[in-house]
Amino acid sequence: MHNELKESYQKIITAVGEDANREGLLDTPKRAAKAMEYLTQGYRQTLDEITNKAVFTSDADDMVLVQDIELYSMCEHHLLPFIGRCHIAYIPNGKVLGLSKFARIVDMFSRRFQIQEQLTHQIAKAVEEVTGAKGVGVIVEAKHMCMMMRGVEKQNSSMRTSVMLGNFRSDPKTRNEFLQLIKG
Ligand SMILES: [Zn+2]
Q: Deepest of 8, 41, 132, 133, by most Cβ within 10 A of its Cβ?
């Protein structure tokens, strides 16, 4: 993959009218390929591998909230970044997941080409699958470079998506508790 990416970046540099052989750009295809490999490593990861048995038995049944997880992804329409924050809440059903694993789940799905709606859904389904939770709520707030740097050039707009599963969907009280907690 690395060489293919490298050659592709070389072509992009030439296609925009640059001299791919000038000093400042000489190693750019190599560096860009490496960066792109990193930013898409989610394609080569699985949920099993990243959560790596960090699921613990617990009789806790109160809402667990992990707030303000940084999120960096790329939109599948323009391959430009969208960046923001993710809030995840769930109600345990006998099992809890190690704290750092939520960030890993967010990273795994973010490091694929995405639309935000789909990303939010994938994170929620993954948390549900790994924990067997009674309910999961996920909110993503992000700014999209394809809106800010090109097109309509709206620098201050952000997009908010949410997915509610299980009792977050069926019980307004649970959902409201989540929404109140992330405000507070
Ligand atoms: Zn886009």
A: 133
